[in-house]
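Dear colleagues,

For the upcoming journal club I promised to circulate an example of a predicted protein-ligand complex. I picked one with PTJ because it came up in last month's discussion. The inputs are reproduced below in full, followed by the predicted structure.
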Amino acid sequence: MIPKSHPRYRSLVTRERLAGCARSGIVSWEGLTAHGRGEAFDYLLGEKTTESARLAERTAAAMLTSARHPVISVNGNTAALAAQEIAALQKASGAQVEVNLFHRTEERVQQIEDLLRSAGADVFSGEAERLLPLDHDRAWCRREGMYSADVILVPLEDGDRCEALVRMGKTVIAIDLNPLSRTARRATLTIVDELTRALPEISRACHDLTQKDKKHLTESLNNHYLLSEAIREMTERLNHALD
Ligand code: PTJ
């Protein structure tokens, strides 16, 4: 049994949690492989929030709190890893929370909504329609929810839907540890940080930012710079990996 003080304890507990959530149906089997990819990239980041990620998190807070209709899109991995952090960000930002799944069944939607509600989130549910221009089940969403949103936060998104949302004219904020993914490159703003570190940082910034900060952050957004900084920080770490 690994001791609680061991640096790897947290990631082992997280893996156990995800495996349990996969067995109960909240996380898709594909979600487990997505988590493994995330772990590998987080290792390259040194499992910490970098300066550029912090800037991206503050910018995300500025965009969410300035939006007309902000929505946080939740999938199986996000609910399993961070239901409480989603509830806290909803309170801090005033965003709607809506479940949107790649591997969609009504039963999974219900399970994930229940998990979010038990963590304190106010989940927007009801009749979903096939409204997004996609040929898979992520097309299903609510007309008064995601479909009408101007700003959408998409943690652990797939590239197709990110592109579709951007093409619909929405501002898309992605959280993705892989700075090379299609989602990371297509989103309006990408936060290259681990989900459970990123969400509390965004919530904190929602409380702290002044109107002047928000204006400055949104006007100076440069996603190419943020992604290249994330790659530079990973490369820097690799260059000194054996020191
Ligand atoms: O619950 P469902 O049915 O909607 O399925 C969700 C998954 C995750 C399977 C689906 O969205 C998917 O296939 O995602 P991808 O295309 O595998 O992308 C997930 C991205 O998130 C990858 O680039 C990972 O590196 C990254 N990632 C994984 N875990 C984390 C992460 N980023 C931040 N924090 C994490 N904990």
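Two points we might discuss: The radius of gyration is 17 Å. The domain at 51-239 is CATH 3.40.50.12640 (Rossmann fold).

See you all on Thursday,
B. R.
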